[in-house]
Amino acid sequence: MSSNLTNKVALVTGGLGGIGRAICARFVKEGATVFAADLADAESAPGTTFVKLDVSVEEDVRKVMRVIHERCGKLDILVNAAGIEIEKTIEETSLSEWNRIFSINVTGTFLVSKYALALMRKGGAASIINFGSYDGFIADPGLAAYCATKGAVHALTRAVACDHGPEGIRVNAICPGYIDTPMLRGFFRDYGDIESLETAVRNVHPIRRYGTPDDVANLVNWLTSDEAKYASGQLWILDGGLSAQVQQMRL
Fold this sequence. Notes:
Elements: E1 9-13, H1 18-29, E2 33-38, E3 48-52, H2 58-71, E4 77-80, H3 95-121, E5 126-131, H4 144-164, E6 169-176, H5 182-189, H6 194-204, H7 213-224, E7 235-238
Parallel strand pairs: 1-2, 1-4, 2-3, 4-5, 5-6, 6-7
Helix pairs in contact: 1-7, 2-3, 3-4
């Protein structure tokens, strides 16, 4: 087993989701102490400690930080992976839906990062990984509120990196494209013929596949390691080349 993250303490929000679970498993493999935070107590990656957390509730966030402080005394890595998607145009999106997606995707990232900072300073050097999206640069149709939240996360990432870099805290955002998760499967189901859609999605990527949670976990692992100690304030697009290409006319 690699000792890349030995003696590191990590908190992963959305730690029971497809991507969050893969990140937790990779951190455990690398020797970290891992807290998997999520809304429901379900089976988590082996070797992790589950903590219940609604990222949009300030007191929940404070409680989790108290638990980590009492058990470990510091926090070296924070991954803000909790997030939801609403598949609607702005005309179809209600104000309550708009507020809900912002409360989780943006306010949740703000609150967890805000209350993690004191613990992160104790370790001397730390890393925050936020989750943006390639939809924060370009837009898929019918995802207006989701795209807006990811653009906000991108801007927040840069700001926090600038403010807290002098304290030894690096901040980056990973911006995935199509990743094989329950969220993507739900998106496919809404459009009928899943098999045909999966094939079409693969074929539009230059590398002819969409990503896996492990692909994301690999990048997260590198960004949180000492090998990436000069990397901060950046938006790392992970989409198999999808957003690099001009979408040619199909005749």
